[in-house]
Amino acid sequence: MKKITRQATTGLLLLASIWLSGCQPQQEHVTLRLAHTLDQEHVVHKAMVLMGERLQHYSDGSMQVEIYSGGQLGNERELIELLQIGSLAMTKVSASSVESFVPQMRVFSVPYIFNDNAHLWRVLESPTGQQLLTDLEPARLRGLGYYDAGSRSFYSTNTEINSPADLRGKKFRVLASQTAVKMVEALGGAATPVDWGELYTALQQGVVDGAENNPPSFYLSRHYELSKYYTLDEHTAVPDVMIVSLAVWQGLTSQQQQWLQQAADDSVVYQREAWAEASEQALAAVKAAGVKVIYPDKQPFRDAVKPFHQSLQQTEIGPVLQQIAALAEKSEAAND
């Protein structure tokens, strides 16, 4: 009931201001409201600020983006639902958060399918990656592009994680993704979905023993204050997805759509370049704060999830997994 009330209230407050200003192209000025759950110091937030600046530039000031950060308007699922009914123009969410709306997106929560960051981006920029964005449209969403979210790794409040054996009997927060849950279970841990905004308290109170995320999120969330062990097993590379309400998109003129897409493309380029530096700075900061950063042998982790990989081959994402593997093989051949 709490969720329904908050979403309904948000919808009533925003419906007039967003629908009228964001979906009627004959108006002189269009304001697109964008909401997300991250801190304003996060490089992804900064990329969205740049997107707004570029949109104003391309449109000669006739279009602007108004950003609500830090989960002000809800968690990622709630934000997606607001887009579906046209009460919010845009959001940035993890690809894992989209999988309950678009099952094909769960491919990104499968562990150890990318060899490195370059392999990930070959996939995202390929017809395979672009098709996954197109697959959003039946859910009344439109994908504008991907943001780099690095690799996710485990952190713990009470134990070093050097191998899958160290996960046994431990409760780890995961994204709201059944694939992420099964991944942790395949490694021997107990998966517990917790909203991002509630995770600090969950770690503090021992509701979970740890979580998993990329270095910038680990640092900016201040989870390093409670979790003094960070194991760079880099099990998944789950990109963020910038999405716009299909109703809002269709309410724009073709010229406005072009401006918005170009602004989003510019933000993707900026964010991708800034991500590596942000990750290095975050790792240095948590080390300085007393966190023990562990560089484990990844092979035992890879071996532990092989049965999970095999179980997915005959599902709807089986062909996508094969396409991802083929892109890795092409890269390796090119480097020979």
Automatic annotation (TrEMBL):
Matching InterPro entries: DctP_fam (IPR018389), TRAP_DctP (IPR004682), TRAP_DctP_sf (IPR038404)
Keywords from the named record: Receptor, Signal
Gene Ontology cellular-component annotations: outer membrane-bounded periplasmic space
Domain of life: Bacteria
One of the protein's GO biological processes: transmembrane transport
Entry-linked PROSITE patterns: PROKAR_LIPOPROTEIN
Molecular function GO terms recorded: carbohydrate binding
Listed CDD domains: PBP2_TRAP_SBP_like_3
Protein name, per record: Tripartite ATP-independent transporter solute receptor, DctP family
